[in-house]
């Protein structure tokens, strides 16, 4: 009985962490949009963390319980080490997507994020051949660390540091909540990991990660203003937050305001579900035809805004040309209507005195001039076609 109480005392934080993670998983799945890839990645993060936490609880209870379960304990400890990179990989993927909003680029980078996991796999394979390199179990099943235990810990630390360095190089792409999430992941798990590495008997690392995940859910995932549920683009509040960050640091950028032409015609004649489908098509084109660092937002209704991370004054016409070309390709597959957009844009080199209402007013005026020009071209083309008949 005394042994069971001692193990409960040692694992109480792990139990609390597991309950919190189960609650977060259930709550996030009920409240999130099925189309929200960020929420899907967050669920993977919770499940990975819950798996290693549960293994930690089981391993603590089996530790030193006698010779009978030694073989089971050995394989569970091995599995625990093999799965230890999983929450970190899930966190990196989750943060990557929230910064860059690009699934294709994430699928390429995930192989890099997985890199050190292969090293840990090799080390654990060596521990199977020569038990004691990473950990050993004595005849009574009592666990003790081996010389390579800290090697695995240092690999994970360096791995996290490399990812943070990569994100830091793209620090102009995020502000506000994402910055807070990065700070949380650096500070809380890192402090608890160092304590656990150098003080045997503490179980603080996974509870520290759980606390970071819980605060991430409150700060980022729970926020309803982060993503538009229909298009999965960032919303107006995210645009204004990034814009404030850019202007405060006086960094050059370009703005492109986009309004769809004849969108009411599509809704009235083909139905609102078809209109929603068109908005989703346009959203995918805007993301695919801009760089991962650019911010693509649904500004409201059938209006979109792009914040282009570039110091080139001529970048906007190039992007507009690219978008029109992509729309032409899509229109070749559609019958009954055409998707077209009008644009207003401006390169902002000096943002020290940037005023959003004033700048958007000017860009909005340019957009409606472009809309008039495009309508005139459409009428002229229709007139030429009818006269040729």
- CATH homologous superfamily of the largest domain - what is it? Rhodopsin 7-helix transmembrane proteins
- How many β strands by DSSP? 6
General form:
elongated
Domain tally: 2
Under the CATH scheme, the architecture of the largest domain is Up-down Bundle
Biggest β-sheet, characterized?
4 strands, antiparallel
* Content-based structural category: alpha+beta
The helicity comes to 55-70%
Tell me the series of helices and strands, N- to C-terminal.
HHHHHHEEHHHHEHHEEHEH
The CATH topology name of the largest domain reads Rhopdopsin 7-helix transmembrane proteins
Segments where pLDDT lies below 50 for 5+ residues?
none
How many helix segments?
14
Broad CATH class of the largest domain: Mainly Alpha
Characterise the protein shown here:
Helices cover 67% and strands 9% of the residues. It has 14 helices and 6 strands. The chain has a 4-stranded antiparallel beta sheet with strand order 4-5-3-6, sandwiched between helices. Strands 1-2 form a two-stranded antiparallel ribbon. The radius of gyration is 27 Å and the shape is elongated.
Reconstruct the topology from this structure:
Blueprint: H1 2-31, H2 37-62, H3 70-83, H4 86-100, H5 103-113, H6 115-129, E1 135-137, E2 143-145, H7 149-169, H8 177-198, H9 205-221, H10 236-248, E3 253-261, H11 263-270, H12 272-288, E4 295-300, E5 303-308, H13 315-331, E6 340-348, H14 356-388
Antiparallel strand pairs: 1-2, 3-5, 3-6, 4-5
């Amino acid at each position: 009985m005394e042994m069971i109480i001692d193990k409960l005392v040692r694992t109480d934080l792990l139990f609390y962490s597991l309950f919190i993670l189960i609650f977060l998983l259930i709550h996030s799945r009920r409240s999130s949009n099925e189309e929200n890839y960020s929420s899907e990645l967050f669920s993977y993060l919770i499940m990975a963390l819950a798996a290693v936490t549960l293994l930690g609880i089981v391993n603590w209870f089996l530790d030193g319980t006698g010779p009978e379960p030694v073989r089971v304990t050995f394989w569970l400890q091995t599995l625990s080490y093999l799965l230890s990179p999983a929450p970190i990989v899930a966190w990196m993927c989750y943060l990557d997507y929230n910064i860059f909003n690009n699934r294709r680029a994430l699928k390429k980078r995930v192989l890099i994020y997985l890199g050190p996991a292969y090293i840990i796999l090799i080390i654990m394979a060596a521990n199977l051949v020569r038990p004691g390199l990473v950990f050993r179990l004595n005849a009574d099943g009592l666990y003790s660390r081996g010389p390579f235990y800290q090697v695995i810990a240092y690999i994970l630390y360096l791995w996290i540091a490399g990812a943070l360095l990569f994100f830091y190089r793209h620090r102009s792409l995020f502000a506000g909540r994402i910055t807070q999430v990065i700070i949380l992941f650096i500070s809380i798990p890192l402090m608890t990991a160092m304590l656990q590495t150098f003080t045997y008997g503490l179980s603080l690392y996974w509870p520290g990660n759980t606390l970071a995940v819980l605060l991430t859910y409150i700060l980022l995932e729970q926020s309803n203003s982060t993503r538009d549920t229909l298009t999965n683009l960032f919303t107006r509040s995210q645009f204004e937050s990034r814009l404030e960050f850019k202007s405060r640091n006086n960094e050059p950028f370009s703005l492109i305001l986009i309004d769809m032409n004849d969108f009411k015609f599509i809704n009235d004649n083909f139905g609102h579900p078809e209109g929603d489908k068109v908005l989703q098509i346009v959203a995918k084109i805007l993301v695919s035809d801009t760089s991962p660092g650019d911010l693509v937002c649904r500004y409201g209704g059938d209006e979109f805004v792009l914040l282009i991370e570039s110091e080139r004054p001529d970048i906007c016409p190039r992007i507009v040309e690219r978008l029109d070309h992509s729309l032409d390709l899509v229109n070749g597959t559609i019958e009954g209507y055409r998707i077209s957009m009008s644009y207003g844009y401006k390169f902002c080199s000096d943002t020290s005195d940037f005023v959003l209402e004033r700048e958007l007013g000017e860009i909005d005026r340019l957009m409606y001039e472009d809309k008039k020009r495009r309508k005139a071209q459409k009428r002229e083309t229709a007139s030429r076609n009818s006269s040729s008949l």
